[in-house]
């Protein structure tokens, strides 16, 4: 999806004008963990990121998944990460050693499959790069944009900051059977082995970093 100017300056304003359950949904899993996984633009906004974030969180890590339910003009529910705040998420991040956010971007060129890594935790980023490349994913740790390096980026509000994952649309589509990445009624989409490979690699990096910090 193309990056455009946000309609809403922050999540509170969005919630004040949109209807919960019809226009958006928030999925929260409190695992009492020191790691939090975030999908700030889930649902139809950055399609495919909700299921990815939930799978990465698994049974171990906290999950905050904001799902935009507008299938048309989904970008209207995009709130940029530097303005993305929610009390439940803040509580997670205040006690999280680090965080990981899962985002989607348009292909830079047709068939683009390179994952861009950002965020302000360099050691976690390095582990993420190693794990993803070992799983045969192309990775760029110095992307031309979407670097996630602003200190107010929500992923950097954890105690030791975090890592932002940007996945191009082509790659995300290939992670789901038939390219169907999200169902508004809540049914989980069917995934491909590529989905499993990505989730496994990211969880390996998180687990190793949590052990070594």
Give a brief outline of the structure:
The protein is α/β, with parallel strands linked by helices.
What are the SSEs and their pairings?
Elements: H1 11-17, E1 24-29, E2 35-43, H2 49-57, E3 62-68, H3 87-94, E4 98-105, E5 115-118, H4 122-134, E6 139-140, E7 162-168, H5 169-174, H6 193-212
Provide the succession of SSEs: HEEHEHEEHEEHH
Task: Report strand order across the widest sheet.
Answer: 1-3-2-4-7-5-6
Task: Outline the low-pLDDT stretches.
Answer: none
Shape: globular
The major β-sheet equals: 7 strands, mixed
Number of helices: 6
Tell me roughly what share of residues is in helical segments: 25-40%
Give the strand content: 15-25%
Category by helix and strand content: alpha/beta
| Rg over alpha carbons | 16 Å
Mean pLDDT: 95
**Strand count:** 7
> What gap, in angstroms, lies between the N and C termini?
35 Å
Explained architecture:
Helices cover 30% and strands 20% of the residues. The chain is of the alpha/beta class and 213 residues long. The protein is globular and about 45 Å long. The mean pLDDT is 95.
Keywords:
7-stranded mixed beta sheet, 20% strand, alpha/beta, single chain, 7 strands, 213 residues, globular
């Amino acid at each position: 999806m193309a990056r455009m100017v946000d309609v809403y300056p922050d999540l509170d304003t969005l919630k004040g004008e949109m209807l919960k359950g019809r226009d958006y949904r928030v999925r929260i899993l409190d695992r009492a963990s020191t790691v939090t996984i975030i999908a700030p633009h889930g649902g139809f906004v950055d399609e495919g990121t909700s299921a990815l974030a939930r799978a990465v969180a698994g049974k171990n890590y906290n999950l905050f998944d904001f799902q935009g339910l507008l299938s048309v003009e989904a970008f209207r529910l995009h709130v940029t990460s530097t303005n993305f705040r929610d009390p439940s998420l803040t509580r997670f991040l205040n006690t999280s050693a680090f965080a990981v956010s899962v985002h989607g971007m348009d292909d830079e060129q047709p068939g683009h499959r390179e994952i861009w890594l950002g965020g302000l935790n360099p050691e976690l980023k390095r582990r993420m790069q190693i794990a993803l490349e070992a799983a045969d994913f192309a990775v760029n740790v110095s992307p031309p944009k979407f670097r996630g390096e602003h200190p107010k980026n929500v992923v950097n509000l954890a105690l030791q900051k975090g890592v932002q994952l940007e996945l191009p649309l082509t790659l995300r589509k290939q992670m789901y059977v038939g390219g169907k990445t999200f169902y508004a009624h809540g049914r989980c989409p069917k995934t491909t082995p590529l989905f499993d490979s990505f989730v496994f690699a990211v969880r390996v990096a998180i687990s190793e970093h949590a052990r070594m910090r």
